[in-house]
Amino acid sequence: MTGRLVIVTNRVPDPRERGATAGGLAVALRDALGTRDALWFGWSGAVAAETAATPVEHQHGRTTYATIDLGEADHRHYYLGFSNAALWPVLHYRLGVARFAREDWFGYRRVNAAFAAALAPLLRDGDTVWVHDFHLFLLAAELRALGCRARIGFFLHVPFPPRSVFLGLPNAQAILEAMGAHDVIGVQTADDAENLRGALADAGAPEAAAKVAAFPIGIDAAGFASLAARRFRTKEVAQLRDSLAGRALAIGIDRLDYTKGLPQRIAGFGQLLRRFPRHRAKVTFLQVAPVSRGAVAQYRALRRELDEMVGRINGQYAEPDWGPIRYITRAVARPTLAGYMRLARIGLVTPLRDGMNLVAKEYVAAQDPADPGVLILSRFAGAAQELDAALLVNPLDPDDIADAMDVALAMPAVERLARWRSMDAAVRATTAASWCEGFLAALEAAPVAEAGRYSPRCRRAIA
Ligand code: ADP
Questions:
Q1: Which of 132, 157, 182, 279 is catalytic?
Q2: What was the pLDDT predicted at 13?
Q3: Which atom belonging to ligand 1 lies closest to the Cα atom of 355?
Q4: 340 near 367, Cβ under 8 Å?
Q5: Cα separation, 463 vs 459, whole angstroms
Q6: N or C end of the chain: smaller count of CB under 10 Å?
């Protein structure tokens, strides 16, 4: 790559947070950013009276961070509305949870156009643009409309549902048509690729369908393994271990989100205690689920439901010296969680749908190679394609989760080890860095867009 790498994401992380506390995407892009000149553009995270037209720029190492504030109405309609209340549920196969409003679509279009208008003047000849995720489906088409000829790649971090589900989204057709403005369209799994190709072909965009490929995302496995080993020896982990008094620990770590299957998981643990009394007072379930998107109504309802379920199960099965479920809705630092994961005999990762699910890979990487725990994994997480040595469950079925927990608690060390070795090899095979390089290599191999080459359909989509 001769020019700069230009990353565009909805939120731009604060460069000072890079490292152990950064989110998955920031970690995944760290190596790519460290070794070339880069520009990272997106929302600052701040809400102002109006969406800013000119970005604020900061230099950090070889990366320029350029961010804009979002106006209050744009934040409401683009971010809370169309992105979080419409696209997020539809892409996770949850049409029934989705809320649609015409103003949200207008806000989504407005912000994609505003991003393009603020970014375009910063672009230089030879730059390669990499757009991330569902917030910015229209950005490339907007950039093309402004005359941008750079290579533009797109990566979708969440699942893409079958087209019959996606077409439940008002304006689905416009989004699919706008996808044609990219040179490479990356998704997490072969299933997502097949679904997206089908939707694009059906929308009359076969040339866009031909640009779709799967690039499963990974983690910095070696880095996370050594973080977990180090944190395992800290006071926080010792306190948790002592408090278990020799009982097994099952752990769940998620954002509090309705795609993560939390009610079914808690019901599954309840079923384990009900159907297999031998496990009562022998296993403690720690669920860490910090509140996210608290401004969206569905998330508040989920929180109430979980509060009630946890209270009911704890009330029913607790002993004076043992509580079945420990439930934390505050944020816990990621390094501490790495140590907790290593302590846990069972990792419960049971999203109803997930693009990849990095927690599953982190749990595997965090294990003690001499005495690894058991991963119970939803068959509907993208990670299940690579981690098929996990105990795969139907996350909608609490009894299936209970059965898997029963198997995991009795699993002999040789079987735990064999399953873990196979999963650890998979987690180390695709790392964050190799994912990034693989996508960028495909993007660089794509032909440079000629002026006016992108289809008129894509102009229509944003008209
Ligand atoms: P999603 O992107 O939908 O939140 P992923 O599992 O793919 O789900 O990625 C989540 C990332 O955020 C992981 O790196 C994970 O360690 C981190 N994370 C998830 N839940 C928590 C939590 N409760 N506290 C701190 N970090 C978390």
A1: 157
A2: 85
A3: 7
A4: no
A5: 6
A6: C
pLDDT at 20: 41
Cβ atoms within 10 A of the Cβ of 58, count? 15
Bridge pairing between strands 63-71 and 128-132: unpaired
> In 3-state terms, what secondary structure has residue 78?
helix
Does the beta carbon of 290 sit less than 6 angstroms from any atom of ligand 1? yes
**What is the rounded CA–CA span in Å between residue 11 and residue 292?**
15
In the chain, which stretches have pLDDT less than 70? Answer: 1, 17-25, 27-28, 31, 294-295, 449-454
Looking at residue 420, its pLDDT comes to 98
Task: Identify the DSSP state of 332.
Answer: -
DSSP string for residues in 150-167:
SEEEEE--S----HHHHT
Relative orientation angle of helices 358-366 and 413-429, to the nearest 10 degrees: 120
332 lines ligand 1 (CB under 6 A): yes
**Residue 354 annotated as catalytic:** yes
pLDDT for 460: 77
What per-residue confidence (pLDDT) applies to 397?
Answer: 98
Rounded distance from Cα 146 to ligand 1 centre (Å) = 36
157 annotated active-site: yes
Q: From the CA of 358, how far away is ligand 1's center (Å)? A: 7
